[in-house]
Amino acid sequence: MADQSKIPQATAKRLPLYYRFLNNLHLQGKSRVSSKELSDAVKVDSATIRRDFSYFGALGKKGYGYNVEYLLGFFRKTLDQDETTNVALIGVGNLGTAFLHYNFTKNNNTKIEMAFDADKSKVGQEIGGVTVYHISDLSERLKNVQAAILTVPGAVAQQITDELIDSGIKGILNFTPARITVPEGVRVHHIDLAVELQSLVYFMKHYPVDE
Amino acid sequence: MADQSKIPQATAKRLPLYYRFLNNLHLQGKSRVSSKELSDAVKVDSATIRRDFSYFGALGKKGYGYNVEYLLGFFRKTLDQDETTNVALIGVGNLGTAFLHYNFTKNNNTKIEMAFDADKSKVGQEIGGVTVYHISDLSERLKNVQAAILTVPGAVAQQITDELIDSGIKGILNFTPARITVPEGVRVHHIDLAVELQSLVYFMKHYPVDE
Q1: Does residue B200 belong to the interface with chain A, where contact is any CB pair within 8 Å?
Q2: B170, A204: Cβ pair inside 8 Å?
Q3: Which residue ranges does the Swiss-Prot or TrEMBL entry mark as DNA-binding (chains A, B) (predicted)?
Q4: Least CA distance to B79: which residue of chain A?
Q5: Is residue B92 within 8 Å of B112, Cβ to Cβ?
């Protein structure tokens, strides 16, 4: 396998996208794919795809393209597709419920194992096959879970983050408007819906065409 | 104002984040901010902040930092904060409902003006102050709207995208798993929940600390 530490972050961010598309191709019975086809499908330009793939030592052949099965095998190893990461969902509001109904395991190596909410009327419910527990049981229940999706009100985001970290969580997908502080070694990806919308609008006005 | 076309995309993507934080500082009555404080709050390293700000011609003073009001005035102009962009929400499921309850206008220059869904039981409802119309009325109702948030099932994403474009939409925030094709001049930002989660897990394993 290629030396992981040498893959640039920008390339690494595109890996799950490539994997998902190639997996779909494979399910459709396709055995090869050109960088042009890939480019059209995942909306990343061909030159970038070829450069990305070269980091993994995958070189396309002219007039043939890439071997889908080889790439999939490679990505599966790289993305540790065979090792499932257990995820807890914190905050079963509308956004949290959307996550619970999203079928992550289909193409994916992640599984939402449990959910937590402060609303007692939600406790004990099963949504999308996942049981909802009370937030006060967090540290007691959180076993064998490595990552959390945070969809709680911004005002309690830091407090709950601290509890998650005390329980050994190593990664947080933060969907609250709050920026959270975590110790070194804990990974946070932040998706703020308002910032995403504002960013789209800004780019619409100033960069109408992708550079 | 600085020449917009010279601001790198990576810098431009951070603008809404800076704006939001500075606006909060201003509301709290703070008149100046250091790049260190900004860095701690928005989780972007100080060197990057200083470089970003230098593109806008904003230079911090040693021992003083940046003037909040000056920066806000600058960002407001740059982000066209005074000019509201009208947005339509397509697909009032759990994710769509979360958007409707999200108070975008608070710190923001965007407003969800109308929502559409295929489910007749939702038509006529008002959610978060926004009326839900039937999806078949899309082209008829869609007036004076520049952007759309797409939270429909992936299988109908392209068809609805085509209708949105025929109605003059210039930007789409795509939350479906589908990659959509649009003509030149239409901007698409794609946020796939499964890809975001997979990306977090990949980074947890290989890049536990931000580079």
Answers
A1: yes
A2: yes
A3: 17-56
A4: A202
A5: no
pLDDT value of position B64: 78
Q: Do B197 and A104 touch (CB under 8 A)?
A: yes
State the Cα–Cα distance between residues B68 and B30, nearest whole angstrom. Answer: 7
- Contact by Cβ (8 Å): B37, B64: no
The domains located in chain A, with CATH, are: 4-77 (1.10.10.10), 85-195 (3.40.50.720)
Q: Does A87 touch chain B (CB under 8 A)?
A: yes
Task: Kindly indicate the confidence band of residue A1, based on its pLDDT and cuts at 50, 70 and 90.
Answer: very low
Binding residues of B for NAD(+): 91-96
Q: What is the pTM for the complete model shown?
A: 0.75
Residue A76: Cβ-neighbour burial (10 angstroms; 0-12, 13-18, 19+): middle
* One-letter amino acid for residue B75 of the chain: F
Average pLDDT over residues B5-22: 78
Question: Is residue A57 over pLDDT 80?
Answer: no
> What is the pLDDT confidence band of residue B195, given thresholds at 50, 70 and 90?
confident
- The answer to whether the Cβ–Cβ distance between B208 and A186 falls below 8 Å is yes
Q: Is the pLDDT of residue B58 over 80?
A: no
Bridge partners of residue B133, in order along the sequence: B116
Could you report the per-residue pLDDT of A118-159, keeping only the tens digit for each? Answer: 999 999 999 999 999 999 999 999 989 999 999 999 999 999
For A56, which DSSP code? T
Residues of chain A with Cβ-Cβ distance to B177 below 8 Å are 20
Percent of chain A past pLDDT 70, that is, above it, reads 89
Asked if B12 and A203 come within 8 Å (Cβ–Cβ), the reply is: yes
* Chain centroid offset of residue B192 CA: 15
**H-type alpha helices, chain B:** 9-27, 35-42, 46-55, 68-78, 94-101, 138-141, 157-166, 193-206
In contact, B115 and B100? CB cutoff 8 Å: yes
Q: Is ipTM beyond 0.95? A: no
Please name the member of B12, B102, B210 whose beta carbon is closest to the beta carbon of A202: B12
**B86 inside 8 A of chain A by CB:** no
